[in-house]
Amino acid sequence: AQSVSQHNHHVILSEAASLELGCNYSYGGTVNLFWYVQYPGQHLQLLLKYFSGDPLVKGIKGFEAEFIKSKFSFNLRKPSVQWSDTAEYFCAVNVAGGGADGLTFGKGTHLIIQP
Amino acid sequence: GAVVSQHPSWVICKSGTSVKIECRSLDFQATTMFWYRQFPKQSLMLMATSNEGSKATYEQGVEKDKFLINHASLTLSTLTVTSAHPEDSSFYICSARDYLETQYFGPGTRLLVL
Q1: What is the pLDDT of residues B52-65, one digit of tens each?
Q2: Fewest CB atoms within 10 A around its CB: which of A94, B40, B55, B58?
Q3: What's the gap in Å between the CA of B54 and the closest CA on chain A?
Q4: Tens of pLDDT along A86-96?
Q5: Nearest-5° Cα angle at B107, B104 to B113
Q6: B57 close contact with A: CB closer than 8 A
Q7: Searching chain B, which residue's CA lies closest to the CA of residue A97?
Protein backbone atom coordinates (compact mmCIF):
# COMPACT_ATOMS: atom_id res chain seq x y z
CA ALA A 1 0.00 0.00 0.00
CA GLN A 2 1.12 3.52 -0.66
CA SER A 3 1.85 6.12 2.02
CA VAL A 4 2.42 9.87 1.99
CA SER A 5 4.59 11.94 4.27
CA GLN A 6 4.36 15.69 4.67
CA HIS A 7 7.26 16.89 6.73
CA ASN A 8 6.02 20.27 7.82
CA HIS A 9 2.90 20.22 9.93
CA HIS A 10 2.88 23.95 10.61
CA VAL A 11 4.49 26.66 8.53
CA ILE A 12 4.36 30.38 9.25
CA LEU A 13 5.53 32.85 6.63
CA SER A 14 5.30 36.53 5.97
CA GLU A 15 3.59 37.87 2.86
CA ALA A 16 5.77 37.84 -0.25
CA ALA A 17 7.98 35.07 1.13
CA SER A 18 8.63 32.02 -1.01
CA LEU A 19 6.98 28.75 -0.13
CA GLU A 20 8.00 25.15 -0.46
CA LEU A 21 6.02 22.36 1.17
CA GLY A 22 7.53 18.91 1.17
CA CYS A 23 5.76 15.73 0.15
CA ASN A 24 7.25 12.27 -0.17
CA TYR A 25 5.47 9.08 -1.00
CA SER A 26 6.27 5.42 -0.85
CA TYR A 27 5.02 2.98 -3.43
CA GLY A 28 6.78 0.55 -5.69
CA GLY A 29 4.88 1.39 -8.84
CA THR A 30 3.62 4.37 -10.79
CA VAL A 31 1.44 6.88 -9.00
CA ASN A 32 -0.70 9.89 -9.69
CA LEU A 33 0.11 12.84 -7.44
CA PHE A 34 -2.12 15.63 -6.20
CA TRP A 35 -2.06 18.71 -4.02
CA TYR A 36 -5.32 19.84 -2.47
CA VAL A 37 -5.98 22.97 -0.42
CA GLN A 38 -8.60 23.45 2.27
CA TYR A 39 -9.30 27.07 3.15
CA PRO A 40 -10.86 27.73 6.57
CA GLY A 41 -14.44 26.56 6.58
CA GLN A 42 -14.32 25.36 2.99
CA HIS A 43 -14.03 22.04 1.24
CA LEU A 44 -11.00 20.53 -0.42
CA GLN A 45 -10.03 22.11 -3.72
CA LEU A 46 -7.62 20.71 -6.27
CA LEU A 47 -4.51 22.85 -6.66
CA LEU A 48 -2.67 20.73 -9.19
CA LYS A 49 -2.03 17.18 -10.29
CA TYR A 50 0.61 15.08 -11.97
CA PHE A 51 -0.12 11.98 -14.00
CA SER A 52 2.71 11.82 -16.52
CA GLY A 53 4.84 13.97 -18.81
CA ASP A 54 6.55 17.17 -17.75
CA PRO A 55 7.47 16.70 -14.08
CA LEU A 56 6.96 20.40 -13.39
CA VAL A 57 3.27 21.07 -13.16
CA LYS A 58 1.55 24.40 -12.74
CA GLY A 59 -1.69 24.76 -10.87
CA ILE A 60 -4.10 27.43 -9.87
CA LYS A 61 -3.29 30.56 -7.88
CA GLY A 62 0.38 30.59 -8.85
CA PHE A 63 1.26 27.23 -7.32
CA GLU A 64 3.52 24.70 -8.95
CA ALA A 65 4.96 21.34 -8.00
CA GLU A 66 7.82 19.23 -9.24
CA PHE A 67 7.81 15.46 -9.38
CA ILE A 68 11.25 14.00 -8.73
CA LYS A 69 10.93 10.30 -9.29
CA SER A 70 14.31 9.40 -7.85
CA LYS A 71 13.41 11.09 -4.59
CA PHE A 72 9.77 9.98 -4.52
CA SER A 73 8.93 13.62 -3.95
CA PHE A 74 6.29 16.07 -5.14
CA ASN A 75 7.02 19.36 -3.41
CA LEU A 76 4.67 22.29 -3.71
CA ARG A 77 6.07 25.75 -4.39
CA LYS A 78 4.96 29.32 -4.74
CA PRO A 79 7.41 32.15 -5.31
CA SER A 80 5.48 34.81 -3.37
CA VAL A 81 2.72 33.95 -0.93
CA GLN A 82 -0.25 36.09 -0.02
CA TRP A 83 -2.28 36.37 3.15
CA SER A 84 -5.13 34.58 1.33
CA ASP A 85 -2.94 31.47 0.99
CA THR A 86 -3.52 30.71 4.66
CA ALA A 87 -5.01 27.22 4.59
CA GLU A 88 -4.40 23.52 5.11
CA TYR A 89 -2.51 21.83 2.28
CA PHE A 90 -2.74 18.12 1.58
CA CYS A 91 -0.57 16.00 -0.66
CA ALA A 92 -2.24 12.84 -1.97
CA VAL A 93 -1.44 9.89 -4.21
CA ASN A 94 -3.16 6.99 -5.85
CA VAL A 95 -2.06 4.19 -8.11
CA ALA A 96 -1.72 5.24 -11.73
CA GLY A 97 -4.13 3.48 -14.00
CA GLY A 98 -5.81 2.08 -10.97
CA GLY A 99 -9.16 3.20 -12.19
CA ALA A 100 -11.26 3.27 -9.08
CA ASP A 101 -8.42 3.85 -6.67
CA GLY A 102 -9.01 6.05 -3.65
CA LEU A 103 -6.53 8.67 -2.53
CA THR A 104 -4.01 8.27 0.23
CA PHE A 105 -3.44 11.59 1.95
CA GLY A 106 -0.59 13.02 3.90
CA LYS A 107 -1.32 14.49 7.33
CA GLY A 108 -1.48 17.99 5.92
CA THR A 109 0.47 21.20 6.41
CA HIS A 110 -1.16 24.13 8.13
CA LEU A 111 0.16 27.27 6.45
CA ILE A 112 -0.26 30.64 8.10
CA ILE A 113 0.67 33.79 6.22
CA GLN A 114 1.25 36.83 8.35
CA PRO A 115 0.44 40.20 6.77
CA GLY B 1 -17.41 22.73 -13.49
CA ALA B 2 -16.72 19.62 -11.40
CA VAL B 3 -18.96 20.47 -8.48
CA VAL B 4 -19.83 17.94 -5.82
CA SER B 5 -22.51 18.54 -3.23
CA GLN B 6 -23.32 16.80 0.02
CA HIS B 7 -26.48 16.79 2.07
CA PRO B 8 -26.94 17.42 4.89
CA SER B 9 -24.02 19.64 5.81
CA TRP B 10 -24.43 18.73 9.45
CA VAL B 11 -26.59 16.39 11.48
CA ILE B 12 -27.12 15.67 15.15
CA CYS B 13 -28.76 12.41 16.10
CA LYS B 14 -29.36 10.18 19.07
CA SER B 15 -27.35 7.07 19.64
CA GLY B 16 -28.89 4.06 17.92
CA THR B 17 -30.47 5.92 15.03
CA SER B 18 -29.40 5.73 11.39
CA VAL B 19 -28.25 8.67 9.34
CA LYS B 20 -28.14 8.93 5.55
CA ILE B 21 -25.71 11.27 3.78
CA GLU B 22 -26.06 12.05 0.07
CA CYS B 23 -23.25 12.87 -2.32
CA ARG B 24 -24.04 14.28 -5.76
CA SER B 25 -21.89 15.21 -8.73
CA LEU B 26 -23.75 18.20 -10.13
CA ASP B 27 -22.21 18.76 -13.55
CA PHE B 28 -20.53 15.50 -14.47
CA GLN B 29 -21.16 11.81 -14.28
CA ALA B 30 -19.16 9.73 -11.87
CA THR B 31 -19.03 5.98 -12.14
CA THR B 32 -16.88 6.00 -9.05
CA MET B 33 -17.30 7.95 -5.86
CA PHE B 34 -15.36 7.71 -2.63
CA TRP B 35 -16.18 8.21 1.01
CA TYR B 36 -13.62 9.57 3.44
CA ARG B 37 -13.61 10.33 7.12
CA GLN B 38 -11.70 13.19 8.70
CA PHE B 39 -11.05 13.46 12.42
CA PRO B 40 -10.32 16.85 13.99
CA LYS B 41 -6.95 18.24 12.92
CA GLN B 42 -6.17 15.04 11.03
CA SER B 43 -6.04 13.96 7.45
CA LEU B 44 -8.69 12.22 5.39
CA MET B 45 -8.93 8.47 5.61
CA LEU B 46 -10.50 6.50 2.79
CA MET B 47 -13.45 4.45 4.01
CA ALA B 48 -14.85 2.93 0.85
CA THR B 49 -15.11 3.10 -2.89
CA SER B 50 -18.59 3.39 -4.33
CA ASN B 51 -19.15 1.99 -7.81
CA GLU B 52 -22.30 2.71 -9.77
CA GLY B 53 -24.39 -0.39 -10.12
CA SER B 54 -22.22 -2.65 -8.01
CA LYS B 55 -21.24 -3.28 -4.43
CA ALA B 56 -18.98 -0.88 -2.62
CA THR B 57 -15.41 -1.79 -1.75
CA TYR B 58 -14.48 -1.13 1.87
CA GLU B 59 -11.06 -0.39 3.29
CA GLN B 60 -9.64 -2.64 5.93
CA GLY B 61 -11.14 -1.96 9.32
CA VAL B 62 -14.31 -0.31 8.01
CA GLU B 63 -17.47 -2.22 8.90
CA LYS B 64 -19.61 -2.62 5.80
CA ASP B 65 -22.70 -3.37 7.86
CA LYS B 66 -22.20 -0.18 9.82
CA PHE B 67 -21.56 2.07 6.82
CA LEU B 68 -23.96 1.14 4.03
CA ILE B 69 -23.16 2.59 0.63
CA ASN B 70 -25.48 2.78 -2.34
CA HIS B 71 -24.47 4.18 -5.74
CA ALA B 72 -27.75 3.99 -7.59
CA SER B 73 -26.98 6.44 -10.39
CA LEU B 74 -24.06 8.12 -12.12
CA THR B 75 -24.55 11.25 -10.04
CA LEU B 76 -25.58 10.00 -6.62
CA SER B 77 -24.00 7.95 -3.88
CA THR B 78 -25.37 7.62 -0.37
CA LEU B 79 -23.71 6.65 2.88
CA THR B 80 -25.91 5.39 5.68
CA VAL B 81 -24.43 5.21 9.15
CA THR B 82 -26.53 2.52 10.81
CA SER B 83 -27.17 2.41 14.55
CA ALA B 84 -24.89 5.36 15.07
CA HIS B 85 -22.89 5.68 18.27
CA PRO B 86 -20.88 8.60 19.68
CA GLU B 87 -17.64 7.14 18.31
CA ASP B 88 -19.11 7.54 14.81
CA SER B 89 -19.15 11.30 15.26
CA SER B 90 -16.88 12.70 12.61
CA PHE B 91 -16.61 14.69 9.41
CA TYR B 92 -17.60 12.59 6.40
CA ILE B 93 -16.45 13.74 2.99
CA CYS B 94 -17.26 12.29 -0.40
CA SER B 95 -15.50 12.71 -3.69
CA ALA B 96 -16.47 11.95 -7.26
CA ARG B 97 -13.99 10.87 -9.89
CA ASP B 98 -14.22 12.25 -13.39
CA TYR B 99 -13.13 10.46 -16.56
CA LEU B 100 -9.65 11.98 -16.18
CA GLU B 101 -9.18 10.21 -12.85
CA THR B 102 -9.32 13.40 -10.85
CA GLN B 103 -11.35 13.43 -7.65
CA TYR B 104 -13.47 16.42 -6.74
CA PHE B 105 -14.59 16.74 -3.17
CA GLY B 106 -17.86 17.64 -1.54
CA PRO B 107 -18.08 20.12 1.34
CA GLY B 108 -18.45 17.39 3.92
CA THR B 109 -21.07 16.38 6.46
CA ARG B 110 -20.44 16.84 10.15
CA LEU B 111 -22.11 14.11 12.19
CA LEU B 112 -22.59 14.39 15.93
CA VAL B 113 -24.07 11.41 17.72
CA LEU B 114 -25.33 12.10 21.22
Answers
A1: 888 899 999 999 99
A2: B40
A3: 13
A4: 999 999 999 88
A5: 130
A6: yes
A7: B101
